[in-house]
């Protein structure tokens, strides 16, 4: 028998009947590690909204923290506005990610969250979640794990921007997207970029022209196939062994189109990029994509 509260929530949420127990990305979200009874308690506080259309915002900088948002489908970008009035993108959030953690300290959102495509989210009232986590150690631990993951991601981004060149930044970005898609059960080899090249450049501290030029370079080197927003990793990159230069040289004729002449120095400079895309091949092998 369905509790009355659950029935009311289904009506309020516009008929979205998918609950935590049935959600395909629950292992990436708050419900992970919770038992059936705990899932039921969490499920009763979640509000499932109607789809958010492309360009709509979940919250704006300065808004009071009322809820955290778990993305069920789609892509959300977070960004701030600098003192000069420029937009600075701080993250791209996929299904299974939680948005709004950065507001917990001051209880106000320091950034904006905007849909890059039609998206579905679960709204989780923060005060209720905070109270519930005090009674459920598993829930509290999972929230801490998710917050820790965000901190680690921020640290990785600082390292990327401070230590890597333009080519390595873009390669790492594409590889990271590929890995995240694999975690969600999608192909790590073929996927669609929901963000524009301008968004990618803004996030990586590069110009649109640089992003386009590097994607073209990756395509000419047969690392990627790029068709508009669609990215495909070339299967032959599986043959490159962990970026070892000697192996790369032996496979040079197979990996690089004959019409392109690339010097050994340039090959060495590309080695770190090849390592990243070789890892994509490993992901594909593990996921049978």
Automatic annotation (TrEMBL):
InterPro entries: cNMP-bd_dom (IPR000595), cNMP-bd_dom_sf (IPR018490), Env_Response_Regulators (IPR050397), HTH_CRP (IPR012318), RmlC-like_jellyroll (IPR014710), Tscrpt_reg_HTH_Crp-type_CS (IPR018335), WH-like_DNA-bd_sf (IPR036388), WH_DNA-bd_sf (IPR036390). One of its GO terms (cellular component) is cytosol. Residues 164-237 form the HTH crp-type domain. Pfam families: cNMP_binding, Crp. Residues 30-104 form the Cyclic nucleotide-binding domain. Its cofactor is [4Fe-4S] cluster. NCBIfam families: PRK11161.1. PANTHER family: CRP FAMILY TRANSCRIPTIONAL REGULATORY PROTEIN, FUMARATE AND NITRATE REDUCTION REGULATORY PROTEIN. This is Fumarate and nitrate reduction regulatory protein. It comes from Serratia marcescens.
């Amino acid at each position: 028998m369905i509790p009355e509260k659950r029935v009311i929530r289904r009506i309020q949420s516009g008929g979205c009947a998918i609950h935590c127990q049935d959600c395909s990305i629950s292992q990436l979200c708050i419900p992970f590690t919770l038992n059936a009874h705990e899932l039921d308690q969490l499920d009763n506080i979640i509000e499932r909204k109607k789809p958010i259309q492309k360009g709509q915002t979940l919250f704006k900088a300065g808004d009071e923290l009322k809820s955290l948002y778990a993305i069920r489908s789609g892509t959300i970008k977070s960004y701030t506005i600098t003192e000069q009035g420029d937009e600075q993108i701080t993250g791209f959030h996929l299904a299974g990610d939680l948005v709004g953690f950065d507001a917990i300290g001051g209880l106000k959102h320091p950034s904006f969250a905007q849909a890059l495509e039609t998206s579905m989210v679960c709204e989780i009232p923060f005060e209720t979640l905070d109270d519930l986590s005090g009674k459920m150690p598993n829930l509290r631990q999972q929230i801490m794990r998710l917050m820790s993951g965000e901190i680690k991601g921020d640290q990785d981004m600082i390292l990327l921007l401070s230590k890597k060149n333009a080519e390595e930044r873009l390669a790492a970005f594409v590889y990271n997207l590929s890995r995240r898609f694999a975690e969600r059960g999608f192909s790590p080899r073929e996927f669609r970029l929901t963000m524009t090249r301008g968004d990618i450049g803004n996030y990586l501290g590069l110009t649109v022209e640089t992003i386009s030029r590097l994607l073209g370079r990756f395509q000419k080197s047969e690392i990627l196939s790029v068709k508009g927003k669609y990215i495909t990793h070339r299967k032959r990159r599986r043959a490159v062994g962990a970026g070892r230069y000697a192996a790369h040289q032996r496979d040079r004729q197979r990996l690089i189109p004959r019409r392109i002449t690339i010097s050994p120095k340039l090959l060495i400079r590309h080695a770190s990029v090849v390592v990243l895309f070789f890892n994509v091949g490993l992901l594909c092998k593990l996921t049978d994509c």
